[in-house]
């Protein structure tokens, strides 16, 4: 075997010692009692190829599973290598891969010279399969002393007649050059280029091009430019390689950027979806030209609409969202094309489409088309075919929110959909109906010309509304905005009729009677009615005939009577006293506004008020001191005074105060503020652009012209991530200093998260650092041998508690005295739940007969790593709060005496944001994704004027918070804080979620951190 120059040989020997245990084959085999070397040798020496193959297969399986048979290497060289059986040849390739090729001191075994000779013979074999398999084996070889005498044979296979051999020969050359450098095969690039020019097989051509791409980019660029017009007709695997070259070359040098981008433009319309996606991504990354972005967006949209896989759609939508941040003008023309993806039944895809298209991309130019499309989609959800589809109700809610966001600022578009949406007021789904009421409230508050038609239609619909919250919203709109005697009379009659028949009584007290009366009526109806009549028979004689008739008229009449009762009456009679008070106030307001109301109608209103007051007072729960009773008393007093009844002086003064409050129009002013705040915090606020991080440059900074900057050598690759003036900063040393500071901060942060797993006096000292990567955890374990002995088979055995699953376990190592080594373990996370990692470390000593063991400390996985900051509206929060079934209540017990400080402390330690406050600034910063900083929390509290006022002036504060886990789980929290006279804080924190794990884990987190800032910080670590 020829030897390489000494420095290179020294380097390669070290490399081989590091990789000698590497193997790409792993097969489980239940070996039982392994056979001895002599038994296997006897079978390998058999003259039959079938016996040799079975023995060799068993030997390979045993060696893969840890057995060593060093004596059999020479036996195989003598008796097996000469076999021409294809199965034996294939097993030999695996055996050459897994066998130990070096001695204990790292030197190559002498037998490998004979193995090299056998491999050379296989490289020159007449059968192309044997040649190709041997070349594939050499791709995995990392021993230069084995490969060196085979280089000539490998290069000779580049011109073999069969494409299978040429393909693997190219990859073998590439593997050698990649592992040991171009110096070992200096003629390889030229040979590969010649092969590329004449090669007809697509896979071989792709492999050859990849070789040039990674080893000699200039040759690769030269070849691509010479074949520029033919690239579009080549196969997709070769086109993907060309795109990889374009990305690498264009970032390093702009010399051929125009010609290379022309190739990308031509490939963007390729039939292959992979090529089309790669072209679009390349255009977005390398060019900001509107033409290039338009081409890339068109390719993305085509993939979005033509691919049926939801995962593909979500990936494409992510890319479109990135394009939207920087190229809003180009994306605006593609809105209707992107909306075609709403035909996908996946709610996640539909929601992502809405997030991209609504808001910044909706303008007066396309608002009409967008509203028309959303209206059609809404009508589809009402069709018979859509009723049984999963997620139809959630999709309808999404569409109604989208229509609300789009038409709130365009009155002409709102007129076309407001009556259609008002049909949803009678829906049994409270979220849908509430969203419609919010939409109508915004239209009535902002557009005076739409008030009368909306209120007239509401008057016709209010009797069929089933939800109390929706009814209260409609009643407030009636009381605040109804004007005109005719409209007032219509609304009053509709509300009075919805309460009939009077008097009102508790529905529960009549439930049993109804059941009894129904049973009695059914029994009576079951008895047939007998009618006797005289008939004439065929023979002329007379006879009597009994006719049995079924009658259920009474029951039908009773059911019809029950059906006439409106949902409003049922809610009031069922104990909804807040609705009763709202009805009383609204009816009184309407009567106060009208000057020509009939006395009979006023009397009916007064009768309704008295009935509702009597119903509220007779309740055993709240009685006459409730808020509802007080409000109804005020309404009755006003109605009595309005009808001419004399009132005492104090009652008259109270009535005048209420009149003055209603006439001040404070409600309308407050509504305007609420609508303005809702528009600012809307998830799809029109014209709202996603904030892109901007770099500010000081006025005394030097001006650097990119076109005049030289790019060569190692700086070419460095300039990919550098801005215009960063290279000058490198020359001054400023960049190095800043990088050192950043590294120091990173090291300090990392050091703070390191946890000691064993004691310093233990034989093996173990430290752990847990790094979170979305759904995966990477556990880095530093092991140090603290003894003066060699520790063999040092192995860390780990177990988990909670929804954690160990994917890759740490491998066993050997530690010399004082040696330290880093091992890794991969852990899969399934849900947001506090998990625990525990285990022990075992090792062997030469002086000890048995293994020794050291138990590791427990490592707790922090729930905060799974929770990201998120935003939610008040309506969606209330809906989820009523739907979620898991609740965890934690009593407040803290040493913090300030309400604001306690609230900031809880928000920082749970990543929860204030509900209804859209704080989207800084979400794309370089800091941790979705993590709240104290500055963010202070900014939120500063913007929430109402909460800030409560904190400063009141002894009681209630705040709703929201967060979302990386698994899509919603976490809701209500913090109710009371400041006692002695300055201590008390109250409770209620957490609700759809799953039990996040509610319990978040509750444990709050319990630990609530006691104080210092304790919370320690607990966080």
Describe this structure as you would to a colleague.
The structure is a single chain. With 1021 residues, the protein is α+β, with helices and mostly antiparallel strands. It contains 46 helices and 18 strands. Strands 13, 14, 15, 16, 17 and 18 form a 6-stranded antiparallel beta sheet that branches. Strands 3-4-5-9-7 form a 5-stranded antiparallel beta sheet, with helices on one face. Strand 3 (755-756) and strand 4 (764-773) form a beta hairpin. Helix 14 (236-252) runs parallel beside helix 16 (273-286), helix 17 (290-306) packs antiparallel against helix 18 and helix 29 packs antiparallel against helix 33. It is elongated. The chain starts with 5 loop residues before the first helix and ends with a helix.
